[in-house]
Amino acid sequence: MTLQGKTAVITGSNSGIGLGVARELARAGANVVLNSFTDREEDHALAAELAREFSVKAQYVQADMSKGADCRALIEKAGACDILVNNAGIQHVAPIDAFPQEKWDAIIAINMNSNFHTMAAALPGMRAAGWGRIVNIASAHGLTASPYKAAYVAAKHGVVGMTKTVALETAEEPITCNAICPGYVLTPLVEAQIPDTMEKYGMDREEVIKKVMLERQPSREFATVEQLGGTAVFLCSDAAAQITGTTISVDGGWTAL
User: Which of 72, 58, 48, 170 is nearest to 120 (CA)?
Assistant: First the structure.
């Protein structure tokens, strides 16, 4: 599966899932545009590193995904957007009656509204180019719920619904729109939580992972960023040209329960 000559814009991609997806798209030959809300030397260095490693073009564009104007400007600054991967996201956990309004607003803005703005901005260019792929990184929580995650669950359900709508609007065009729904993924952020959780429960690393963190993931194994990247590459390939408006779960069986 080659994506040579295509340009992929990946939001929230200077670490974790977003970076993993960007790496696999670059490995497949796509030029990549990395993004986050920071504008540090290391962000731009990361893009340069990907360019060297995979012999593709890569750039970093700062944009705050909580702001609609920034979301749309990201697409414009990218110069081209054949592949759009909406990955940016944040989380906050609290009962709904104690959920801070500012956290609700931020999660809805970054996890859901940003997808609306980037897709709206990218679609005209995809239509002009005669080809396009949109991959929205939703979540198992886009298909099911957990307590204390009202904003995240609402946003991810919204992303899945938006994915279906855009797929129907582009169904007769060479553009597809799908969502990947990960379960728990071993990212640096998750890795950093393991020692504290070990201390809290008095368990070793393996026990914490299998009995606490992956309690709802039947495989008892984390998904990897490489697996998510590989799924995104597949959805961008010719083999997936008739896959649109659906979700692909990478969750170790979570949503089969």
Answer: 72
pTM strictly above 0.85: yes
| Catalytic member of 60, 148, 152, 184 | 152
> Which residue has 């071993």 as its token pair?
186
Beta strands in 128-245 (DSSP E): 132-137, 175-182
What are the 10-residue block averages of pLDDT along the chain, 257 residues in total? 95 98 98 98 98 98 98 98 98 96 98 98 98 98 97 98 99 98 94 93 96 95 97 98 98 97
| Residues contacting residue 58 through CB under 8 Å, at least 6 positions apart | 26, 31, 32, 33, 34, 47, 48, 50, 51
Question: In 3D, which of 154, 167, 148 has the Cα closest to residue 108?
Answer: 154
By CB neighbour count within 10 A (0-12 exposed, 13-18 middle, 19+ buried), where does 69 fall?
exposed
Annotation marks residue 152 as catalytic: yes
Please list the residues that pair with 178 across neighbouring strands: 135
Residue keyed to tokens 């002009």: 128
